[in-house]
Amino acid sequence: MAGPARKKRKLSSKSKMEKAAVPSASTSVEPKHTLYINNLPDHIPVTRLRANLYFLFSIYGEVIKVSVNPRKRRGQAFITLKSVDEANLAMISLDKEPFFGKLLNVSFSMKETTNV
């Protein structure tokens, strides 16, 4: 004998739109001037890496700062652009793009740096 039948609750179109409008917990951090880049190749010298990141991101706006810690690189960098709009455009355009044989992961930084 089959178990008790369950009724499927139908969502109204209004409920569906409200549900879609609520951001999920997995959404990115709110837009900032600073981008966090990871999945960078470790075999590239730090000066060459900084220069290439600067040239790549300057296509999308004025790059204020490129930070790569030479001791604790671990394939990470922070890039600060002049405006949030420029940073957003760079993030959308360059996420998952190939860079020295690896795909870049670009997201907004958790912390904001001050622009000078």
Structure description:
The chain is of the alpha+beta class and 116 residues long. It has a domain of 75 residues: 2-Layer Sandwich (Alpha-Beta Plaits). 28% of the residues lie in helices and 21% in strands. The protein is built from three helices and six strands. A hairpin with an 8-residue loop joins strand 2 and strand 3. The longest helix is centred in the middle third of the chain and has 12 residues. It is globular, with a radius of gyration of 21 Å. About 11% of the residues have low confidence. It comes from Torulaspora globosa. GO terms for molecular function: RNA binding. This is RRM domain-containing protein. Keywords: RNA-binding.
Strand content: 15-25%
What is the makeup of the main sheet?
Answer: 4 strands, antiparallel
- Give the topology string: H per helix, E per strand: HEHEEHEEE
CATH architecture of the domain at 34-108: 2-Layer Sandwich
Rg, rounded, reads: 21 Å
Task: Look at the structure and give the CATH class of the domain at 34-108.
Answer: Alpha Beta
Q: Can you identify the CATH superfamily of the domain at 34-108? A: RRM (RNA recognition motif) domain
Helix content, binned percent: 25-40%
Number of helices: 3
Q: Please tell me what the overall shape is.
A: globular
Compute the average pLDDT. Answer: 81
Count the strands?
6
CATH topology name of the domain at 34-108, in short, is Alpha-Beta Plaits
| Class derived from helix and strand content | alpha+beta
Spans where pLDDT lies below 50 across 5 or more residues = 15-27
Q: Note the gap between the termini.
A: 73 Å
